[in-house]
Sequence to fold (657 residues):
Amino acid sequence: MSNTMTSASRRPTARDENWKYANLRALERVPFEDPTTAAVVLAEPTSAQTTLDDIALPARQAKLRVVLVDGVLNLALSDPLPDTVQIKPARQQTLETAGISSIDRYFFALNQRRRQQTLELRVAAATQLELEILCIARSVAQPALELHLAADSRLRLIERHLSAETSTGTADSATNLAIEIKLAKRARLDWLRWHRLAGKARHIETLDLELSEAADCELVQLTTGQSTTDTVSSRSTAFVRHNGAAHLRWNVAALADGSQSHDAYVHIEHAAPGAHTEQVFRGIASGRGRLGFNGHMRVNADAIGTRSEQSLKSLLAGGEAEANVRPQLEIYTDAVSASHGATVGKLDTDMLFYLLSRGIEPATAESLLKWAFISDVLARLSDSDLRHEIEASLVSQLPGAIAARGQS
Amino acid sequence: MLEIKDLRTKVGDREVLRGLNLAVRPGEVHAIMGPNGSGKSTLAYTLAGRPGYEVSGGSVAYRGKDLLGLAPEERAQAGVFLGFQYPVEIPGVNNVYLLKAALNAARKHRGLPEVDAFEFLTLVRDKMKLMQMDESFLSRGVNEGFSGGEKKRNEILQMLVLEPTLALLDETDSGLDIDALKIVAHGVNTLRSAERAIVLVTHYQRLLDYIKPDHVHVLARGQIIKSGAPELALELEERGYDWLLGEAA
Fold:
């Protein structure tokens, strides 16, 4: 089905099934539609852009780094672009997606209408590339990324979302991100996504991922606030489609502390025989934090031999915390192997007592167990430097746990 | 070192310990035996401060202080160690960290500085050799994927590193084959000293072939119903508990 969006698409509300747990109120007053709100509007990027002295860039994690500030490429902060990376003016897209409500694509359509440019990357056949994309949000941003991995190519992509610290404090930013990724045959994507939102940052995103025959994608995603006092909210909507016997590992961890809110809807469509999806979600809601994760697995009638495994778990670590995890299976053939498990629970009292009985202080013991809870996802990170940086960043949420890993 | 007087513990609505008395002096090894459901594990958990084990009466003095008034971690820091019958697996928290954090907590309690990293690893490696454990155990999650025997060895390793003043070993012998039993017993024996006391909770006499107790007690219906010399364990092995239960009734 053609899913070209029209402006008639309705904004989602909490009454819409896939948006029940999203913090839509936080997005209500964001002027995404208003073209005059963008802080920096550039038809063409130029090297004359000023450096952002007040933005402390994190240590580089890949050979090639590009920096987007409020959705626009900043050449001064980015490495010189190779031919494979291009900046294109915004244009309309047509995507083939089955069973997707136009409401779920409302924000994508909005991005298409209001994006200022599209960062397009092509990884040539049988080549390898390492790329870090740093998205810094200061005000209203609608970044757009398109990645094409040709046959037998390999991309290690690190995508980071930060809220800028400014002289007047942390910006009250709002981002509406759109990402489209296509993997050709046997292409491989190692994809780290790290949202570290600060202040009152609001982040909404729509991801489209298509996998061809024998393609392989491993995602490791971590969504947190920068500190427990930040009142950030995020919503991630993803549409994945297996067009061949591809392999997808979708590993997501989210921490909602204080009054933070993180919600995700992931629609994975098996549209060809023999594809394999492994999905792991680990979320911890503390204080009055809210978490949602809806893993919607669709297996089409001709997708025989599909394998899908879902393990979705949330931990409630606060009296007023809330978590909703939901595996959703929509299967139109018998020849599949699909398993799913979903739990929402509290800290394991046996584990807690074991640690206490070894003299560990209760606060440390609790944070160790929280750490252990998300370690299923973080352990998937193969890059130790990056893992250490992530671990160090979690110190405010999980004090004591960092040392635990540091000794390992 | 340990003076338990008329201890009563409830688990849920059920009173499991019903006026238990026991005195343990430094340097002694006590074996507590008894039939299933007699309250052996409840005693160990009560002394370690496990939530859900509610003390409804009596007192426990540990080195002259009220043990029951301490939180579980404070008891551990003060030198009380519980070797679990069923050690839990904690994937994601690695063994070496737990050992180091536990050791430092105890050192802090004693007013000592944190252990030096090199010193610590040397200490742990020595103890692991004693327990015939592979070094790969250190980098694994706590008890993660360990066999029953490995878990028990890990408990004893922790005990050897922490050097507690009072060790409570809850059925440390259960699930061990004879070779593992010897290793575990050897580990326990190396800890015996004039300043320490060990309380072994066990079902079977065979552990006592390798760890010679000074006193043997029979716990039944929530009370110590008989105490005696090590030979009592042999008699129990031969005659079972029924004759004692009859006497006590």
Chain B has one domain: 2-248. Residues 11 and 53 of chain B are 5 Å apart (CA to CA).
